[in-house]
Amino acid sequence: MKKTSVFIAAAFLGLLVMVTVSCGKGGGISSLDVVGKDSVTSFDRLLKAAPQLVTEDEMNGGWSIAAPDSEAWFVWSWDYSTSPLHDVMLVFDAKPFINAGLEIEKLPEDIAYYDDMIMVGTMLGNDKFSGKGSALSSYEEIVKRYRASIGYHGALDHYGVNVGGGNLFEWAKDMGTNDKDMVFVLNPEPFITAGVDPNAISGWAFAPVTVDDENGKPVQVDKILKPFNLL
Fold first, then answer.
1. Centroid of chain to Cα 183
2. Phi and psi of 82, rounded to 5°?
3. Contact 87, 80 (CB under 8 A)
4. 163/58 Cα distance (integer angstroms)
5. Minimal CA–CA distance to 131: which of 83, 87, 79?
6. How many CA atoms lie within 13 A of 110 on its CB side?
7. Gap between the Cα atoms of 128 and 54, Å rounded
8. CA 51, 46, 83, 143: dihedral to nearest 10 degrees?
9. Which of 59, 72, 138, 175 has the most CB atoms within 10 Å of its CB?
C-alpha cells in the first residue's frame, strides 16, 4: 500500500467540540439546527470533491470514504437494523500499528481486528430504513436520528462524526480555505496499552490537541491523527 508521511503542527490542530442541539429521534432536522444542516451541506461537498474515494461497502452494510493513501476508511451504515458490526466506524490498516509494537491480543474487546484491519466504532440504534439510499442521504439519517453524534469545532471550522471511544471522523466546512479537508482521529490510550509506540506509526501523527472539557474550558489531550488535504 502507498505510504505517506504526515506532518502536523499541533498548535493549529484541534478536535471538534460536540454541540448538542435539540432534535428528536426521527423528527427531522430542526430549522434552528444550523450545525446539523450545514454539516449535511459540507459533507455533500466532501463526497463530491473526491468521488473516487466514495464506495458502497457491502461487507459492512454501508458507505465508505477512503483516505487518499488507502489506509483508512470512514464507514456509515445504510440500515441500522442490519449493520453487522457498527453503524458508524473507522477502519484502518493494522500494519503500521503492528510495526509500531501493537500486540493484537492486548486490544480491548470493543476494538475489532480482522484481515489485517482494525475497526473502531459504535452502534447508534436498530432503525430500519426503506431502501439503501445514497451516501449523502445515509449521512442525513445520522443527523436526523442521532444528532448528538455530530459535532462542530469552530477554531478549525470542522464538522465531524463521533464514532465512540474518543475516535472521530472530521472534515472541513470549507475545503477552499482549510488545509485539513478530512481527518481520521484515534484515541491513543488503548493502542499504547497494547504496546504501540504512538510516535512510530507510519502515516499517522501523534500530537496534543485542544478540546473543551465539560465546563467549556480548553484542555490538551493526545490523539493519533491522519489528516488529508483534498484540494
1. 7
2. -120, 5
3. yes
4. 19
5. 79
6. 11
7. 23
8. -150
9. 72
pLDDT in tens, 45-103: 999 999 999 999 999 999 999 999 999 999 999 999 999 999 999 999 999 999 999 99
User: Is residue 4 over pLDDT 60?
Assistant: no
DSSP output for 125-155: --PPPSS---HHHHHHHHHHH-GGGEEEETT
- 104 Cβ partners below 8 Å, 6+ apart? 94, 98, 113, 194
Q: d(Cα 62, Cα 144) in Å, to the nearest integer?
A: 17
Spatial separation of the C-alpha atoms in residues 42 and 36, rounded to whole Å:
10
Looking at residue 147, its pLDDT comes to: 95
What whole-number distance in Å separates Cα of residue 180 and Cα of residue 101? 28
**What letters, b where the CB count within 10 A reaches 16 and e where it falls short, cover 146-155?**
bbebbbbbee
**What pLDDT shows up at residue 92?**
98
Measure CA 124 to chain center.
14
Q: 202-225 pLDDT, tens per residue? A: 999 999 887 766 777 878 889 999
Nearest Cα to Cα of residue 90 among 12, 160, 17, 38: 160
What is this structure's pTM? Answer: 0.85
Query: φ, ψ for residue 144 (rounded to 5)?
Result: -70, -40
